Amino acid sequence: MGEAVTALPCKPATAVTPGAVRLSTRGKLFTWAMVYRSFPGVAVPFVSAIVDFDDGLTVKGTLRATDPEMLHAGMPVVAVFDDAGGARDADGAAYLGYHFEPVGGAAA
Question: Which CATH architecture has domain 23-105?
Answer without folding.
Answer: Beta Barrel (2.40)
